[in-house]
Amino acid sequence: MGKRSIGLTVVLVLAFCVLHSTGVQACEPDSILTMLRTEVESHTTIRVDYHREVHSLLFGDQKPESGQLWIAQPNRYRVETNGQVYVRGNDTLWAYSEANKQVTIRTGDLNKAEFGPAGFFGSLSDDFIRVGCGLDQVDDHDCWKVRLAAKTETAAIQRITLWVDAKSHLPRMAEYVDYNEETSKVTFSAYKTDQAKDRQQFTFFAPADAEVIVLPAKKSQENPE
Fold first, then answer.
1. Exposure string (b/e) for 60-85, b if CB count within 10 Å is 16 or more?
2. What does the alpha-carbon distance between residue 169 and residue 218 come to, in Å, rounded to a whole number?
3. Which domain holds residue 174?
4. What CATH number did the domain enclosing 39 receive?
5. Which residues does residue 96 pair with via DSSP β-bridges, in sequence order?
6. 224 located within any domain
7. pLDDT digit string (tens) for 102-129?
8. Does some domain include residue 219?
9. How far is CA 218 from CA 109, 123, 222, in A?
10. pLDDT tens across 195-220, in order?
11. How far apart are CA 68 and CA 47, in angstroms?
């Protein structure tokens, strides 16, 4: 599964803010990242609709993409978009293309093998510098606008800007720039949390007519053979 295919999912984050009767108060990036972990871990599952637009001087603009994203603890997710399905379970990563009827399966050291929402949720505090935080609006909703920058020039995602709803603490919009200077803008809607039927979304069953390719397992650097 390519980094560009699922990079959209790196922006599903939650915010920390202080509310008083007079309105929204100070914004502090480190507290936002703390709230991210706290809020995500408080839900069994999170499901959200997204729409993504990509602009690139190098590759040209891509066709707009819409789909659904599911997230569950500890590192599981599912993305469905434009005939593509990506699923990470506890220790298996599936990628399915409806167009070519092909499923690829990878196991072993998945955090090193792919860049998806689960890996990103664990790396914000460690891999990004907090650049700024302020108040902004998205579709008449008061939001925190939080800016982050990667610590290294080789990181897959170099810059991230998040617009997080000050009332719901959920993202309304995000923009991120990758190492190719490709800019993705993602909007989020229709959040659903802790739905019983969503608990089954993190295992993929290949269609009967699909070709199944099992990729070589990635070896953990901590436990080389």
1. eeeeebebebbbbeebbbbbebeebb
2. 36
3. 3-214
4. 2.50.20.10
5. 85, 103
6. no
7. 999 988 777 655 545 544 455 566 778 9
8. no
9. 6, 20, 12
10. 999 999 999 999 999 999 998 876 54
11. 7
Number of separate domains in the chain: 1
Which residue in 78, 72, 61 sits closest to 6, CA to CA?
78
- For the chain, give the DSSP string: --HHHHGGGGG-------EETTEE----HHHHHHHHHHHHHT-SEEEEEEEEEEE-TTT-PPPPEEEEEEEETTTEEEEEETTEEEEE-SSEEEEEETTTTEEEEEES-HHHH---HHHHHTTHHHHEEEEEEEEEEETTEEEEEEEEEESSTT-SEEEEEEEEETTT-SEEEEEEEETT--EEEEEEEEEEES-GGGGGTTS----TT-EEEEPPPPPPTTS--
Instruction: Please check whether residue 111 lies inside any domain of the structure.
Output: yes
Which neighbouring-strand residues pair with 192?
47
Residue 106 lies in a domain: yes
Residues 6 or more apart whose Cβ sits within 8 Å of residue 52: 8, 64, 65, 66, 184, 185, 186
pTM of the shown model: 0.77
Per the structure block, which two tokens stand in for 15? 């915010």
